[in-house]
Amino acid sequence: MTQKIVPVIMAGGKGTRLWPLSRAAAPKQFIQFIGDKTLFQETLQRVSDPALYEAPVVLTNEEFRFLVAEQARELDIGLEAILLEPVARNTAAAVAAAATLVSKRFDQDTIMHVLGSDYEIVADDTYFDCVRIAAATAAEGKLVTFGIQPTEPATGYGYIEGGEALTTGARVVARFIEKPPLAKAEEMLAAGSFYWNSGMFMFSVSCLLDELRTHAPETIKAAGEAVANAKTDLDFTRLDRSAFSAAPNISIDYAIMEKTSNAAVVPSPFKWSDLGSWDSVWKSGSRDEHGNVAAANTTVVNTKNSLIMTHGVHLAVQGMDDIAVIASEDAVYVGRLQDSQDVGSIVKMLAAAPSTSQLTETHPTSYRPWGGYTSVLNGDRFQVKRIFVTPGKKLSLQKHHHRSEHWIVVKGTAEVTIGENVQMLRENESVYIPLGEIHRLANPGKIMLELIEVQTGSYLGEDDIIRIVDEFGRS
């Protein structure tokens, strides 16, 4: 049993509205925007107070599992569990599975705080006051949502109407409203008793499970069986595919919150944004005297009210107004901020064309449980990569059928296994791995290992890897 709150973080979404930085295999919750941490890492930090919270439960999918583990490790934040959803079933099934797990590991009266991992939130005293009000309200048997105090007549959010005041400081939910037209949004803003639906919740496990049994019996049945038949894989808990797939594809709002008579809302005046477009990133950023939000590695001249960001080349922007210029390692987006809600249509066009579809899926830099690699140059029968290996990690013992490899160490120390031979390579030293030879790369040092890999051969795809031994369970 615990008196602390158990945070449940949803980190499986695959949005691409913030392209070219956000992509299917690296969505916005795992990307650094203006600050030095990703949105997922900022979410972890908000629930890191050991006096208030237990270690988090994170829900994600197979594709993002190592991103979750590595970004938590970077902050030295321990996780209670990483639940892997085998298929996407929206938030109702995910929250039901988390509640089932929490009930087994803690207690039926445990309070859960459900958070998205892709919001920009200022976690100040006002924020934590709202958290404590929500926890007190949940302890009294209410299913609590956080209602953000509107700052404009936004049409991209759902709204909640607040009703009767409760003794805790929360209010009874009078009704939920779908995303409104502008005129209706202006009316609600003027009325003052309407709030943006933040997608954050607080409830006791027992109350949630009771409501699920009443309003969403198929969801709780599928989630319960998925947890009961889950398999442990390293630090991950794999929900049973067959059981979880049977869950309806519905949100927790639709499954429970809009149907229950026990819903409450905490009026929340803290700064919040779902960062659903480049315009919202600009609004949430720190603007200079000309209204610009400009990240590092940029030069901005005679430009105002613009967003300038780069994760690659240096950007120089001159004579612009109301412009978003966003550069990733391999693509640049330029458009008016007021049109940034339409980035999704460009992404669909790129995804439909074979020559550009890869630009919507992955970045040149890919992350693995041992570190990762960046594609530097591709040619006919050769490829150049920068490989980085975290201290203490090793790649799988493997071989390739179609390529040979040359490794040149540029930073750190490499332990290289080739056949029966093990050798140490230091900066400016190199080695050759013949086609078909069993080999392994490890970092025995205390600093990041970086090397340049030159591949040559008839086929250079990532699927030409025969893993013989792998500490991450991939052999």
TrEMBL record:
| Pfam families linked to this entry | MannoseP_isomer, NTP_transferase
Record GO terms (molecular function): GTP binding; isomerase activity; mannose-1-phosphate guanylyltransferase (GTP) activity
Reading the lineage from the top rank, the first entry is Bacteria
Would the keyword Aminoacyl-tRNA synthetase turn up in this protein's UniProt record? Answer: no
Q: Where is the Nucleotidyl transferase domain?
A: 7-286
Q: Which EC number(s) are documented for this chain? A: 2.7.7.13
Q: Which UniProt keywords apply?
A: GTP-binding, Isomerase, Nucleotide-binding, Nucleotidyltransferase, Transferase
**Where's the Mannose-6-phosphate isomerase type II C-terminal domain?**
358-469
User: Enzyme class, one word?
Assistant: transferase
Q: Which reaction does it catalyse?
A: alpha-D-mannose 1-phosphate + GTP + H(+) = GDP-alpha-D-mannose + diphosphate
- For the keyword Glycosyltransferase, the answer is no
- Protein's GO biological process: GDP-mannose biosynthetic process; polysaccharide biosynthetic process
| Family the UniProt entry places it in | Belongs to the mannose-6-phosphate isomerase type 2 family.
What name is this protein filed under? Answer: mannose-1-phosphate guanylyltransferase
Task: Supply the source organism for this entry.
Answer: Rhizobium favelukesii
